[in-house]
User: Fold this.
Amino acid sequence: MANFEISALTKLYYSIGEVAKIFDVNASLLRFWEKEFDIQIAKKNKKGNRLYSVKEIAVIHTIYDFVKLQGYTIEGAKRALKGNHPIQLKEKDTNEIIIEQLEKIKEKLQQLKS
Assistant:
């Protein structure tokens, strides 16, 4: 996953292929996580293809972080997420994401100022 930032997402909805590309994983892994973590995909197109919102991508980002970056097992990641079904970002997670984004913006502004 190359320098992914939630703030970089500009569209309302993303296809499963686009989300898979963001995280550099297969679409089948996203479908697996959807079942394992009981992620509710709110929107599908007329063909039935999944359309992921930014909120759903943020949830996938959290799962990706636990499983791929921190090395959690699926069961360990479920425990770390405290079994929320359907899974949702906690307010703390959302605040952490916003703080990280603001820190990156601050760094960029300081670089431009120099």
Notes: Confidence is low (pLDDT under 50) at residues 84-89. Helices lie at 16-23, 27-36, 54-69, 74-80, 91-113.
